[in-house]
Amino acid sequence: MTGRGPARRGVLTAAAGLAAVAVAAPDARAAEAPATGRRSRWTTSWATAQTAPTDTDAVASAGLTNGTFTARVRLSAGGRVRLRYGHAFGTVPVLIGPVTAGGRPVTFGGRRQAWLAAGASLTSDAVAGLHAAEASLLTVRTELPGPTGPLSFHRNTHASHDLDGERTTSVYLLTGVEVTGAHGPVIAVLGDSIAEGVGTPDDSDMRWPDRLARRLPGAAVADLGISGNRVLLDDARFGPGGQARFDRDVLSLPGLRTVLVHLGVNDLQQPPSQTDPELVLAGYRQLVLRARDAGLRAVGATVAPFGGWTRWTPELEAVRRRINAAVRTGRVFDAVADFDAALRDPDRPERMRPAYDSGDGLHPNPAGHAALAAAVDRRHLL
What we know:
Oligomer: single chain
Structural class: alpha+beta
Distance between the termini: 55 Å
Radius of gyration: 21 Å
Low-confidence stretches: 1-40
Mean pLDDT: 91
Strand order of the largest sheet: 6-5-10-2-12-13
Strand content: 15-25%
Number of helices: 10
Helix content: 25-40%
């Protein structure tokens, strides 16, 4: 009982702060409306998916006091800008701010600071005077007075950021940048380590979702890849599976038109291995139903070859081929991106072409990521 009083007071303080923001919010929204009275159409431009810290994630587990996190994120579409923060795995509120984006002050309901409730998200006002170019690099500086408690984060974005003067590839609390200038497809990639960028150099923007965005001028692509992520099972380090995180990570994104599901290989190769292809296919079908109910098109990627990976077996290869055969029939997803066909070696179809292999048998190199992006048909994204 004695330990609950301060936490309770913190919640009440946070509630008061949120209430104060809510009072100012209507005026801020009205200020964003064009003279016609119609509101601007916001879409995601950059996004990341969060996991909870584990004992090996020292900074995220301990949290920050008077910390400053600076993210450098590559936008897809451009336009006016607003930010989204999330604390999906938080247990206490976190005070956000002051914040700057592109060197300009960011407000939340007209205020420089706002409380981010545990388990919730927080969206800023449009950043005054900021109009980001398509494919530009945006710097977001967030002060966290703290103490924050453990932080929800994305462990490795394969890009350089800054935490209190030290380089990090993790992103803390910031989950999205939203813009008004998308004039092409708006796509969310629900993926694993390949979508996240394993196999490509840090800061190169050579992940296949990045390359897809460059293939589609005006498109907005949100990369929601988490290394180790599965369709079916949750994991303390690799986060909730695709089914568990679908509503938060995908359906919460504004302006979305299409979700591309790039999951499945970890269900097979990660212990405990899933050896029943029907269970993976059933998981896919549930994602498709939820996407359709939200008015989205669901595109599915076939499971790419992973022969040569340490846990590959002929038995798992047979499961992979059965899953891919079912996906290719067109009776699972609305459309198919055949990543297996894009990467496989015609002489050894259980393996990637050597020219596409990063060296571990599972993760493609930059050339392989380019082949994946090319395998996505624009017509399936509209």
